[in-house]
Write a structure and sequence with these properties.
With 407 residues, the chain is an alpha/beta fold. The chain has two domains: 205 residues, Vaccinia Virus protein VP39 (Rossmann fold, 3-Layer(aba) Sandwich); 124 residues, NAD(P)-binding Rossmann-like Domain (Rossmann fold). 35% of the residues lie in helices and 20% in strands. It is built from 14 helices and 18 strands. Strand 13, helix 11 and strand 14 form a beta-alpha-beta unit. Helix 5 runs parallel beside helix 6. The protein starts with 18 loop residues before the first strand and ends with a strand. Bound molecules: thymidine-5'-diphosphate. Thymidine-5'-diphosphate binds next to helix 11, strand 14 and helix 13. The site of thymidine-5'-diphosphate has 20 residues, from helix 11, strand 14 and helix 13.
């Protein structure tokens, strides 16, 4: 029987999304035959409440020199990260002389550049070479590594201990959280803080946003599971702040045990999660049924449109859409292309389903009748940008929180 990655208890999948490719593994036709697949099956640990996928592909298959994801592609995300950095600077770093901030998975430097611009000592740790290089090119100090206790020790030897260790949409990617927690203990000063944000389990369950479950997201966190996972390594959850990013995220602040007083928000959120059953099997049985309903309804819409000969496209070749397309059985017969602004994805095909990814200009030049909003987490930005599409009679197909056609 599989074991929980956090506490070692026996765990069992509550559902399977079936065979899945690498979510960011956009590919060329000559690569179709050798595409890698694994079984995407999530489980909830009855002991420590951690939601995790049972099988995860080797990290080297997901994060490498051709990693397709650049954080800086959304304008609201740029604003969000600037606000995150400013909050850390104002509430934590400002009181120290010559503070030092480290970020895990700093991607193209979207957040650290704020510190770099203020001449604050900073260091990014980013395992994907292409994005790490993009960060260095814009003046953000970055090393190309996977974070571990060893790397933490090296950093301390070179730069001294850090006042803050940050991570955004990164922690939930790391299977060996114990190694990160130990590294964070070594890296941080006695009153240093570990602050990270990731998609929040409460939102995933509440909105049936099952597309947050994919290879890179080995965990989907709750306050309960974060407190347990880091509590085992001398950390205490001292604050929680909900975020609207990624369709509903949570920012967790942890401090070394006894160093800081936990806020009321922590106790309130833990009580709410316990009441909602974020640690109970029944909750995830209902979630599974909701996923199946969502899948069946989405396919009913797409099959109907295919029969009518409507032109349907997708918007945003997101990692999340890999789960949706492969779980639901969406093919290039349903969706002729996916529009995406990321140059490294354009001209390639979506993982598993092999739907062509085309530049945004093609969407503009030839509006489809219907568009599946795969990048639903950027809905506000996209609806603002695509007023002309809607005015021209274009219709959006949504699937979070419910499947509907937006007239
Ligand atoms: P993201 O929401 O970060 O999703 P995930 O974490 O699931 O990969 O990715 C958004 C994708 O959508 C990215 O490939 C860029 C694309 N995109 C557009 O094509 N147009 C837009 O207006 C926005 C906001 C995103």
């Amino acid at each position: 029987m599989p074991q929980c990655r956090i506490c070692g208890s026996a765990i069992e999948a509550f559902m399977s999304f079936g065979k899945m490719p690498i979510s960011n593994g956009f590919l060329r036709p000559d690569e179709f035959d050798n595409e890698y697949f694994f079984e995407l099956a999530p489980a909830i640990c009855g002991n420590c409440a951690m939601l995790q996928i049972i099988e995860q592909p080797d990290p080297a298959k997901m994060f490498h020199e051709n990693y397709a994801f650049f954080s800086g592609t959304s304008k609201y995300m740029k604003v969000h990260f600037a606000e995150f950095a400013t909050a850390i600077q104002k509430h934590h770093l400002a009181r120290y002389d010559d503070p030092f901030v480290v970020e895990l998975g700093s991607n193209d430097g979207i957040m650290l550049r704020v510190f770099a611009d203020e001449n604050i000592r900073h260091l990014g740790i980013e395992p994907s070479k292409n994005v790490a290089e993009a960060a260095c090119a814009r003046g953000v100090n970055t090393i190309c590594e996977f974070f571990s206790e060893d790397v933490a020790t090296q950093i301390v030897l070179q730069h001294g201990q850090a006042d803050a260790l940050l991570a955004a949409n990164v922690m939930c990617h790391i299977p060996d959280l114990a190694s990160v927690a130990k590294g964070a203990q070594a890296l941080l000063k006695p009153r240093g803080i570990l602050v990270f944000e990731d998609p929040y389990l409460g939102d995933v369950v509440g909105k049936t946003s099952y597309d947050q479950i994919y290879d890179e997201h080995v965990f989907v966190f709750s306050a309960l599971s974060v407190a347990n996972a880091f509590g085992r390594h001398g950390f205490e959850l001292v604050n929680v702040e909900p975020q609207i990013t990624h369709g509903g995220s949570m920012r967790y602040t942890l401090a070394k045990k006894g160093a800081k007083q936990p806020s009321n928000a922590v106790a309130l959120l833990i009580a709410k999660e316990t009441e909602l059953g974020m640690d109970r099997a029944e909750t995830f049985d209902t979630f599974r049924q909701n996923c199946e309903t969502s899948r069946d309804q989405l396919m009913a819409v797409l099959n109907d449109l295919r029969e009518k000969g409507a032109k349907v496209a997708g918007y945003g070749a997101t990692s999340k859409s890999t789960t949706v397309m492969n779980y639901c059985g969406i093919t290039a017969d349903h969706i002729t292309f996916i529009s995406d602004t990321t140059p490294t994805k354009q001209g390639k095909y979506s993982p598993g389903a092999h739907v062509p990814v085309r530049p945004y200009e093609e969407f503009i030049a030839n509006y489809p009748h219907y568009t599946v909003l795969f990048a639903w987490n950027h809905s506000r930005e996209i609806m603002e940008k695509e007023k002309d599409y809607t005015a021209a009679g274009g219709k959006w197909i949504n699937f979070v929180p419910k499947v509907n056609i937006q007239e």
